[in-house]
């Protein structure tokens, strides 16, 4: 036992060990019918996001690298018939799930204001690869994923709103914790896994701001891969600095002890964080989902008069996160795909003009076409405190379009179709519609149904049965 006690009698290993204990606990909450269903729907949505990204540049380049490296064939990659190593599967599937900014999003209260917590499904690939590697049951995998979601929310609450560190920094310990839980680690190995993961997890927030690069899509996959690697090393007896949370030379800049480490291991209460997870009906930033819904509703009213639009007003919830994102000049006038799918000016313009928001709206650098640059130039961004007050837990929007003849049309959206209400969860029909719309371009109806059945029956099978049909995708 690695108890490091400082001269004042404080056990520096206590926080990481208490967190490790919590991650290993049996929790009846993780297997309630509502949480099992919600977790399966999030798995299906993550698979849809991975399928949609099979031809996208960033994951394609990751695939090229992994083909060069090779790997022990134990775990599946979406869209590849051959298996690879667990670490390669975590990286590759993580890149696929994240690359279109199409996977789930969570909001939480930060300093009294609703903010984006992150994208918990970034870590579903780590859980599935770990489960396939270890050969554990689907139900145990569902438990580990639900635990990982809850851990995500708790760790994010220890990161100040103005942190210099990106929210994906929480994922190293989450990936390690999920592997350790699935592998049946004892407390000592789990604490070492978390400690080893923690020392590799810190990621600067520049990956999410400024001139957005391909690193935005890989940040979490890098960290999750490192977290699983840490757990594999702990499994072999490698120890980590268990005082990593408590020590001043540890993670204080990332996880603020003044925000209460003890909140990491308190009993689970409603609403469980996994129940707050919203899916994205549209392939873009989570804070723009209601804006896109409003823009799509406006399409029939503006499609024949797009060239006569004189002004577009995008009014969003008055929240610090929204103000910060609206102020990013690189998003207002995007130059890259990564900036375009985060742009509050381009996204509603293309959705209103084309009546869709899929990967197709980003092909051929659509944001640089003359009709789009004109609409971007006449778009004004603002906030309204009343919107947030009328839609708690959401990022609502209103769009007002003015034409050159003085006429106007407007549309408001308080909750988009993929919003999850904590007492009900996701709309199963919406999740399946998204999956089917993406999948039908890559596979026949039989394979679509097999994948849906494998996911929705996951608690009675295992990860190998779930991943097998994903290797058949052409």
From TrEMBL:
GO terms for molecular function: lyase activity. Residues 18-257 form the MmgE/PrpD N-terminal domain. Residues 282-446 form the MmgE/PrpD C-terminal domain. It comes from the Bacteria. Belongs to the PrpD family. PANTHER family: 2-METHYLCITRATE DEHYDRATASE, 2-METHYLCITRATE DEHYDRATASE-RELATED. This is 2-methylcitrate dehydratase.
